[in-house]
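Severity: low
Component: inverse-folding endpoint
Summary: output formatting inconsistent between runs
Steps to reproduce: submit the following structure tokens with default settings.
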């Protein structure tokens, strides 16, 4: 990457959208058992970053930001067991004019039990690239070589000339019912999006407390993490996958449906009149099998549903599955980049749009799939667990950022046959009690939505 490389429109948006309390940072973590060496991990981080330009780059300029020549390694912070409350805040947002937008945080929860968190300013790269980057770190920690880059002619950093997608298919992302007889064009969907204001999660009173549906979040030393992670066990996860497949859907469709239902119930308990909710769904645009330096190869799609549609979980999940297929078949998510490129041509307009008091969505739900294969680390394995340098990675999880108005972010990661669900909540707007309660409500609703789907044939 040459010095003074102008940020892409998407990178520009993700950079200028940050503000105090909303750092536009996402998190990917690995839970690790074993005698982890912080010094060895720090060296592995530097080695991994050597072939990735953006994780080592600062940003220059203000009116039209640009990437400067890579001259900063990602930050590394280690907090040993028993040393909580000392040293700098590991969760403080990156200052990208002075430092890298990446930070690796190693937290020792108890002797020989660590949580290793990659905190990323979203302008640097997307979640899939971050997981691949973590795979490079663990490969170097183990002493092996990271997976080679695989080039593609499909270059996604140059998106100003993205072809407008062609509308096709029988689903929709808007609020009316799906009709196989009335396909909608992407242009029509864009018009609907521009005139629609989704419901915003309200501040209390919160809905009633549910009994925990599984193990609670693990406590780690140091300042509390900004997000919460809960797990579904292997049997629950396998049942979700079977029921989703029988309904022609995916794990992501089940969780999106659950988040929509929780959002409606939450607002109803707060006394708000019903209004359609909108879920932002990051969509990877990276061609299958390709791999390159960390960057953003993604766009956004949006899913809207009314309170009426959310009352019936099985039809809701089927409609979300149809909409997801429509998004893939029509390349509808690319329209967001096309529109953003046009907006970015007017100096200052992207920054202005991020400051308008309008909600983009009710919540964001990001599903990165199975983290083991995604990391592509050259490591020994035991079942579904990676074993770097005498350690054992027992879980991988992550969560996207929140922005003003979009008050809830949900991240989904599969690892070792278990679904990890993480939530990041706008506690400024919803209050400190909202974060654990929303996480718990979503977990309970995921179980309820999956149970409402027909059982797979011969599933017993």
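Observed output (run 2 of 3):
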């Amino acid at each position: 990457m040459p010095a003074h490389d102008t940020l892409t429109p998407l990178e520009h948006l993700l950079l200028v959208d940050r503000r105090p309390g909303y750092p536009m940072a996402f998190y990917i973590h690995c839970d690790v058992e074993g005698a982890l060496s912080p010094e060895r991990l720090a060296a592995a981080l530097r080695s991994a970053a050597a072939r990735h330009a953006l994780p080592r780059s600062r940003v220059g300029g203000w009116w039209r930001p640009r990437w400067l020549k890579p001259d900063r390694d990602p930050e590394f912070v280690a907090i040993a067991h028993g040393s909580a409350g000392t040293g700098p805040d590991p969760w403080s947002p990156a200052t990208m004019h002075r430092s890298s937008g990446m930070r690796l945080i190693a937290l020792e929860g108890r002797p020989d039990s660590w949580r290793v968190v990659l905190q990323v300013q979203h302008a640097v790269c997307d979640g899939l690239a971050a997981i691949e980057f973590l795979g490079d770190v663990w490969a170097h920690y183990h002493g092996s070589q990271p997976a080679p880059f695989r080039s593609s002619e499909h270059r996604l950093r140059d998106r100003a000339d993205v072809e407008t997608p062609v509308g096709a298919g029988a689903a929709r992302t808007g609020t009316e019912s799906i009709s196989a007889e009335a396909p909608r064009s992407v242009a029509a969907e864009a018009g609907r999006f521009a005139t629609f204001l989704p419901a915003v999660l309200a501040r209390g009173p919160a809905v009633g407390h549910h009994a925990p549906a599984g193990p609670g979040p693990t406590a780690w030393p140091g300042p509390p993490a900004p997000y919460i992670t809960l797990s579904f066990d292997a049997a629950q996860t396998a049942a979700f996958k079977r029921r989703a497949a029988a309904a022609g859907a995916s794990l992501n469709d089940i969780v999106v449906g659950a988040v929509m239902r929780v959002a409606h119930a939450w607002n109803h308990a707060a006394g708000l009149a019903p209004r359609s909710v909108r879920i932002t769904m990051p969509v990877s645009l990276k061609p299958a099998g390709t791999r390159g330096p960390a960057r953003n190869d993604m766009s956004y799609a949006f899913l809207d549903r009314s309170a009426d549609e959310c009352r019936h979980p099985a039809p809701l999940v089927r409609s979300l599955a149809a909409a997801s297929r429509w998004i893939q078949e029509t390349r509808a998510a690319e329209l967001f980049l096309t529109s953003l490129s046009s907006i970015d041509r007017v100096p200052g307009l992207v920054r202005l749009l991020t400051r308008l008091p309008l909600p983009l969505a009710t919540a964001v739900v990001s599903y990165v799939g199975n983290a083991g294969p995604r990391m592509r680390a050259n490591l020994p394995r035991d079942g579904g667990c990676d074993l770097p340098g005498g350690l054992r990675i027992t879980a991988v999880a992550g969560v996207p950022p929140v922005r003003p108005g979009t008050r809830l972010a949900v991240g989904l990661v599969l690892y070792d046959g278990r679904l990890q669900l993480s939530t990041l909540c706008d506690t400024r707007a919803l209050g400190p009690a909202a974060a654990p309660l929303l996480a718990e409500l979503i977990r309970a609703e995921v179980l309820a939505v999956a149970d409402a789907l027909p059982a797979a044939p011969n599933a017993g």
